[in-house]
Amino acid sequence: xxxxxxxxxxxxxxxxxxxxxxxxxxxxxxxxxxxxxxxxxxxxxxxxxxxxxxxxxxxxxxxxxxxxxxx
Length: 71
Prior knowledge:
By secondary structure, the protein is mainly α. The chain has helices at 30-43, 53-67. The chain has a domain at 25-71. Helix 1 (30-43) packs parallel to helix 2 (53-67). 11% of the residues are buried.
């Protein structure tokens, strides 16, 4: 018997590549923009408010690595 209940596998989709997101081409969310602005300031990098959800996610990952956040 197959277990199709997503609650039994909460992290099975947690690391999906942003390039594969069905909504990745939509504008970034307010939460992404806020966090990205904070990370950009901490890293001394410019903030780009025109990023898509997918690109914002990748940028957040890169800036987390640079600033040591998200570990």
